[in-house]
Amino acid sequence: MRPTPFDHPDSLRLIAEVQAFYRERYGDEDTTPVDPAEFAAPRGFFLVGYLDGVAVASGGWRAQDSGADPELRDGDAEIKRMYVSPAHRGRGYARAVLAELERTAAAAGRVRTVLETGTKQPEALALYASEGYEPMPGFGIYRHEPDSRCFAKPLHARVG
């Protein structure tokens, strides 16, 4: 896994793949407003996972604080664009990407990760539940969508 700009060609290819995945599952792309600069340090992070030089996984977080949305708190890190290419699923890459996003968010002083996913992504729901994510009230542009599910997890700074 390598820190990679959100607008790097490898990132953009994987983001296009995840948007195509959303179109298949939900009939439309994720239309959440996203600015690539939000995923740059110190208030964000994006990574790409490579296998034999080929980009196969991605994910990022962006700082969110109270005021942006009633359910968000100072110190939140919103996870976005978690994705693993279909041929590479089931090998633990999503879990590794998620762990690195949590680690880097905590290292940047963020205190909680938050995310939004949907009922038509049972794989994502199972992953987040198995990693200790708890349901939270809806936030963002999908807060009132019946298929939307939002989750949060406190982050703990690692010592040493």
Can you describe this structure?
With 160 residues, this protein is an alpha+beta fold. The chain has one domain (2-114): Gcn5-related N-acetyltransferase (GNAT) (Aminopeptidase, 3-Layer(aba) Sandwich), CATH 3.40.630. Helix content is 26%, strand content 29%. It contains three helices and seven strands; from the N terminus they run E-H-E-E-E-H-E-H-E-E. The chain has helices at 9-26, 93-107, 122-130; strands spanning 2-3, 44-51, 54-64, 76-84, 112-118, 134-136, 148-154. Strands 1-2-3-4-5-7-6 form a seven-stranded mixed β-sheet, sandwiched between helices. A hairpin with a 2-residue loop joins strand 2 (44-51) and strand 3. The chain is globular, with a radius of gyration of 15 Å. The mean pLDDT is 95.
Compact overview of the structure:
The chain is of the alpha+beta class and 160 residues long. The chain has helices spanning 9-26, 93-107, 122-130; strands at residues 2-3, 44-51, 54-64, 76-84, 112-118, 134-136, 148-154. It is 26% helix and 29% strand.
